[in-house]
Design goal:
single chain; four-stranded antiparallel β-sheet; ABC-2 type transport system ATP-binding protein; binds adenosine-5'-triphosphate; ATP hydrolysis activity; Rossmann fold; 2 domains; six-stranded mixed β-sheet; membrane
């Protein structure tokens, strides 16, 4: 069964085309990653899926229920963890979760609320007022709130932005368990290592369009071989070696170059070329290409 069907969704904010015709089909039980740089349209797409904003064109269904036409049924299927922390400061954690349960018509939900709090390490904060929680604790409540009605589809919009290692581990352990039990998970994150570890399939968005859609394994395979990462102290990459660049240097590390190599013997040729051009190398690593390289290459408009 299709968990989320997004068909030709468009959204414009005045002159800005935030989404330019996005179509995606996410199957039940998938762990799906929605990746893209700042402003790519990820949050806009998630807000449309959650029924929080209306698209200008296109259609979204969740487990077959139209988000616009059949909002209540669609919303029941969905648990959304938003990026921003918004709470009523006067309620305790437990009250917040009971209130959210009530919104879904669940009167006796305490057993599941306790289980969710336990799994997110929130039990000892159950009677604490929301305003007295730290940012990381508030984020745990946000996750718990999204899960009170045991939604078959869980959407997480950058759930680990600015949170400590402990919460990340707690969160991923619980979300992985829910995914193993059959829940569909859709994740946006800027932590590509996290996406690589968790997501089986990925869509990359750029300027409101899907620019890559594939399984994680297939995406990783697209960059075959290894890469030679060079930090140069002096000089720039000679013209002859530019075709080997996986992506141009990033703005914050202009002297770091990643070159694609298919054979270790090529390292010798590259080093000879650099020596001849008078380049001084500060540091050098040989490593496997990862999702970050693929992401940067796709966002740069290069072909794989
Ligand atoms: N309410 C709004 N009014 C006007 N423009 C908006 C509004 N919401 C989003 N935008 C613009 O739409 C584009 C897509 O924004 P969106 O928040 O969906 O991107 P994103 O991929 O989630 O980015 P980030 O990774 O920074 O969270 C951006 O250019 C943003 O400035």
């Amino acid at each position: 069964m299709t968990a989320i069907q997004i068909s030709n969704v468009e959204k414009r904010y005045k002159s800005l085309q935030a989404l330019g015709g996005v179509s995606l089909s996410i199957e039940e039980g998938e762990f799906f990653g929605l990746l893209g740089p700042n402003g790519a349209g990820k949050t806009t797409l998630i807000s449309i899926v959650a029924g929080l904003i209306r698209p200008d064109a296109g259609k979204v269904t969740i487990h077959g229920h139209d988000v616009s036409g059949d909002f209540r049924a669609a919303r029941k299927m969905l648990g959304v963890v938003p990026q921003e922390l918004v709470f009523d400061p006067f309620f305790t954690v437990r009250e917040t979760l009971r209130l959210q349960s009530g919104y879904f018509g669940l009167a006796n939900n305490d057993a599941w609320i306790d289980e969710v709090m336990h799994n997110l390490d929130l039990s000892n904060k159950a009677d604490t007022n929301m305003r007295a929680l730290s940012g990381g604790m508030k984020r745990r409540v946000l996750v718990a709130q999204a899960l009170v009605h045991k939604p078959p589809v869980i959407v997480l919009d950058e759930p680990t932005a600015g949170v400590d290692v402990e919460l990340r581990q707690t969160l991923w352990k619980f979300i992985s368990r829910l995914n193993r039990e059959g829940h569909t998970v859709v994740l946006t994150t800027h932590y590509l290592e996290e996406a690589q570890a968790m997501c089986k399939r990925v869509a990359m968005l750029k300027s409101g369009k899907v620019v890559a859609l594939d399984t994680m394994a297939a995406l990783i395979r697209r960059i075959s071989g290894s890469q030679l990462v060079l930090h140069m102290q002096q000089g720039t990459l000679p013209e002859a070696l530019r075709p080997l660049l996986i992506h141009p240097p990033e703005a914050d590390q202009p002297n770091k170059y990643s070159l694609r190599i298919n054979d270790y013997a090529e390292v010798e040729t590259i080093l000879a070329g650099l020596r001849q051009a008078g380049v001084v190398i500060d540091e050098m690593q040989l490593q496997q290409a990862d999702l970050e390289d693929i992401f940067l290459q796709i966002m740069d408009g290069g072909s794989l």
